[in-house]
Task: inverse folding
C-alpha cells in the first residue's frame, strides 16, 4: 500500500511542473482516477482479509468442538456363535465330571413302630421296611446329604470305534460309617461303572428291564418305589436302534418254607436275559421290556437243590400333555421277579415242604402327573402300588402282601440347576396276617447340580 502512495505522489509532482494548463487538467483527472482505482483495490483487499479471518475463526471453533465432544462408544464385540465345549481332552477322549449335592430334611411318623437309627427307611422310602405291629410314636426328624452324587465320563474315537465310559457313585445305598452323634458319615457306593464300544455296553448299569426315563420327579430317592422296576447290575448289552438285549447278573432271593428271614441264594448258573423295545413319537415315548431268568437254590446241609423259571413283562410310557406337562405310567407283572420290583418287596420264590422252588407272582405299577405351574415352578402327583400273589401255605402269614404310596410335591428352580422343594407322602404296608403299618413323611430338600 505504501508503494502505491509513493508512486502516486511522484506522478502528481511531475504533472504539477509540466507546461500548459490543458496538460495540467488532464494530469489531475488521471491522478484522481488512479487514486480511485487504488482505493477500490484497497477495499477489496480489506474484504478478502476479513473473509479469511472469519474462515479461520470458524475452523478454530470446529476444532474446539471436536476436541471437547465425548468419544464415540466402541463398536460392540461380535457375539461368538461357537458352542462352548464342555469337558477337557485327554488323548483321544473328552473327559467330563459332574453330579449334584442334595440335602434332605424329613419329618416322619410311623404307625407300627419307630425304625432303628441307621435303618435305610430313615433316609428314603423302602416299602418292605415300614414297621408293622408296633406302637405309634411321635414324629421323628432326620437330616442327611446321602443322595449327593458324582460321576465321571469319557468318550472318544479309538481305532475308528466310538468308545465311552462312565463311573458314578453316591452315598445313599449303604449305611454310614458314623452316626448322628458326631460325624453323620456315609459310605460311598458304586452306582454305575461301564464301558461302551459302538453298540455294546459292558459293566454295571441300570437293568435293561427298567425304563428310567419315566421315573416320576420326587424328593424321595426313588419315589414310586413299590411300583417301579429298579435294579443296577453288571451286564453285557447290545443295542441296535430301538431294540436292546442283555445278559445280566443273576441272583435269587428265597422265602423259607413256612416263612422266615430272606435267603440270598447266590447259586445261579445262568445269567438273567432281558430285552427291550423303545418307541419315540411326537406325543411321547413307549417302551416294552421282557425278562427271562433262572431261579436256583442249593443247600447241601438241608438237601435242597432245585431250579425254577422266572419271567416278567413291563410296559411304560411318558405322554405329553400340552406344552410342558406329562403323564408317566408303568405296569409290570410276572413270576419270580421279586428282586427287580419294588426294591425287593417280595422274594423271587418260596421253598415248599419237599425243598422245591415255587416262583412268587407279582403285579406292580405307578401313575404320575407332572404339571408346570409357571417357569421354575412344577409339581408331581404320584400313586404307586404292588400286590404279591403268595401261597400262604408255603410263605406263612408273615410275608408281604401289598404296599402302596401317594406323593404330592412342589419344586422351585430359582436358578439353573438349583432346586428347592417339599413333598408330602403317605405309604402303607400289609402282611398276609392282616397286620399293617403306615408312614407319613414330609420331605424338604435343596439340590444343586454341577
Result:
Amino acid at each position: 500500500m505504501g508503494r502505491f502512495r509513493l508512486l502516486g505522489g511522484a506522478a502528481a509532482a511531475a504533472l504539477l511542473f509540466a507546461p500548459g494548463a490543458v496538460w495540467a487538467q488532464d494530469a489531475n483527472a488521471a491522478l484522481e482516477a488512479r487514486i480511485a482505482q487504488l482505493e477500490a483495490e484497497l477495499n477489496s483487499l480489506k474484504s478478502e482479509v476479513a473473509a479469511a479471518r472469519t474462515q479461520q475463526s470458524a475452523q478454530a471453533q470446529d476444532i474446539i468442538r471436536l476436541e471437547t465432544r465425548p468419544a464415540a462408544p466402541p463398536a460392540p464385540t461380535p457375539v461368538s456363535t461357537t458352542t462352548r465345549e464342555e469337558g477337557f481332552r485327554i488323548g483321544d477322549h473328552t473327559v467330563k465330571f459332574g453330579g449334584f449335592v442334595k440335602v434332605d430334611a424329613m419329618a416322619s411318623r410311623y404307625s407300627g413302630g419307630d425304625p432303628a437309627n441307621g435303618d435305610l427307611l430313615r433316609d428314603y422310602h423302602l416299602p418292605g421296611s415300614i414297621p408293622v405291629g408296633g406302637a405309634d410314636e411321635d414324629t421323628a426328624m432326620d437330616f442327611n446329604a446321602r443322595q449327593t452324587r458324582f460321576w465321571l465320563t469319557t468318550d472318544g474315537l479309538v481305532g475308528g470305534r466310538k468308545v465311552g465310559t462312565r463311573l458314578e457313585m453316591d452315598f445313599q445305598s449303604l449305611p454310614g460309617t458314623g452316626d448322628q452323634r458326631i460325624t453323620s458319615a456315609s459310605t460311598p457306593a458304586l452306582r454305575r461303572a461301564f464301558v461302551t464300544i459302538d453298540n455294546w455296553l459292558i459293566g454295571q448299569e441300570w437293568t435293561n428291564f427298567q425304563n428310567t426315563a419315566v421315573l416320576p420327579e420326587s424328593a424321595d430317592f426313588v419315589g414310586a418305589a413299590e411300583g417301579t422296576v429298579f435294579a443296577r447290575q453288571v451286564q453285557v448289552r447290545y443295542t441296535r436302534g430301538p431294540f436292546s438285549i442283555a445278559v445280566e447278573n443273576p441272583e435269587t432271593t428265597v422265602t423259607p418254607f413256612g416263612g422266615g428271614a430272606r435267603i440270598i441264594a447266590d447259586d445261579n448258573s445262568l445269567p438273567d436275559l432281558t430285552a427291550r423295545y423303545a418307541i419315540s413319537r411326537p406325543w411321547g415315548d413307549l417302551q416294552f421290556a421282557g425278562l427271562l431268568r433262572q431261579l436256583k437254590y442249593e443247600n447241601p446241609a438241608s438237601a435242597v437243590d432245585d431250579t425254577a423259571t422266572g419271567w416278567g413283562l413291563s410296559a411304560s410310557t411318558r405322554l405329553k400333555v400340552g406344552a410342558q406337562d406329562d403323564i408317566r405310567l408303568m405296569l409290570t407283572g410276572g413270576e419270580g421277579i421279586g428282586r427287580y420290583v419294588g426294591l425287593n418287596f417280595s422274594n423271587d420264590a418260596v421253598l415248599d415242604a419237599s425243598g422245591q422252588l415255587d416262583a412268587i407272582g407279582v403285579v406292580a405299577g405307578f401313575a404320575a402327573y407332572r404339571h408346570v405351574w409357571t417357569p421354575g415352578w412344577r409339581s408331581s402327583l404320584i400313586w404307586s402300588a404292588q400286590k404279591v400273589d403268595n401261597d400262604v401255605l408255603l410263605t406263612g402269614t408273615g410275608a408281604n402282601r401289598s404296599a402302596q404310596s401317594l406323593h404330592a410335591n412342589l419344586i422351585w428352580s430359582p436358578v439353573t440347576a438349583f432346586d428347592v422343594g417339599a413333598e408330602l407322602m403317605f405309604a402303607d404296608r400289609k402282611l398276609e396276617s392282616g397286620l399293617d403299618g403306615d408312614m407319613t413323611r414330609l420331605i424338604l430338600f435343596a439340590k444343586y447340580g454341577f
Remarks:
- The first strand starts at residue 88 and ends at 90.
- Residues 1-24, 62-84 have pLDDT under 50 and may be disordered.
